[in-house]
Amino acid sequence: MLPLSQTAGYAVLALSCLDDPGGAPALVQDVAARTGIPRAYLSKLMNSLAHKGLILAKRGNKGGVVLAQPAREITLDVIAEAVDGDAWRRTCLLGFSTCLDDRACPAHAFWKEERERIHAHLQQNTLADIASFERKSRTWRLMDALLPSTVSP
Amino acid sequence: MLPLSQTAGYAVLALSCLDDPGGAPALVQDVAARTGIPRAYLSKLMNSLAHKGLILAKRGNKGGVVLAQPAREITLDVIAEAVDGDAWRRTCLLGFSTCLDDRACPAHAFWKEERERIHAHLQQNTLADIASFERKSRTWRLMDALLPSTVSP
DNA sequence: GATATAGATGATGAAACGGTAAACAACATG
DNA sequence: CATGTTGTTTACCGTTTCATCATCTATATC
Questions:
Q1: Domains and CATH numbers, chain A
Q2: pTM of structure
Q3: Labelling A36: which of A53, B42, B121, B136 has CA 20 to 30 A away?
């Protein structure tokens, strides 16, 4: 069970659909339809992301959701931390409680390095990177809809 | 939520207390007391590990548990896979379902490499490595018991 | 073979995560 | 200001993971 939470993935995917600040607000239900994320669940996620300052939500007619900052300035790390917290950056690979820098478990030095590598990667990639990938891969999802699903869970 | 499951950590810790095949059987309750793992829970874990061939369990008077193979031949990977399975080696960092080698998400190449690095490390480390660490760190745990816990969760 | 010992097993429970449903509150528009 | 649109909030459900408890079963020993 190594990856970030499923909800963190939802957040990245959903935010990659939104416009930069000043742009056209997107409806949560549209984002849900586009991404396949359950509407009601996404609604709660968006609400939480709004409270954490990642997006701006406007309700009522002509309402919707936009990014609070340009996509190029929002790193995956910020999103992951908003959803999952940063506890994973301090955990031991094997879950040992007595595993700190000065009393390390056998995997400690290795795992510390891995965590930092992962963290750095999340910090270096932004929503803009995801969005450009999503634009390219929309074709794939179209094919998924047309062909019998031989691949996706 | 990046590390392996807590139960996998339990397994590594518990198995590191056992003798090689032919050695003296250890009581599950003793292992529980030594490691801090809940007795009843460890009992079921041990049972599962016995079914998977990692340990030999003998019940009844003078019973107990020993490793099925020498500690030096049991890798952390084998233990982790017995407990958690190997699904984590195929998951996307962000949980995208459309993330395979030929239709990768932006983090795919990076994450694939990380997974392989982690897997290799788990394959290279054995129970013997853990056991020697545990022997050294027993002092620490003694101190934990004597001093107010300022560190361990 | 009776007995104490020790693992095996099944029922149960609490907490976290993913997910649902419905009532609620704000806002643009006519 | 009435209305419909759209996000907000609350409560609830199902599954998985970690954990407990009681009971059953095997076995070494006397």
A1: 6-146 (1.10.10.10)
A2: 0.84
A3: A53
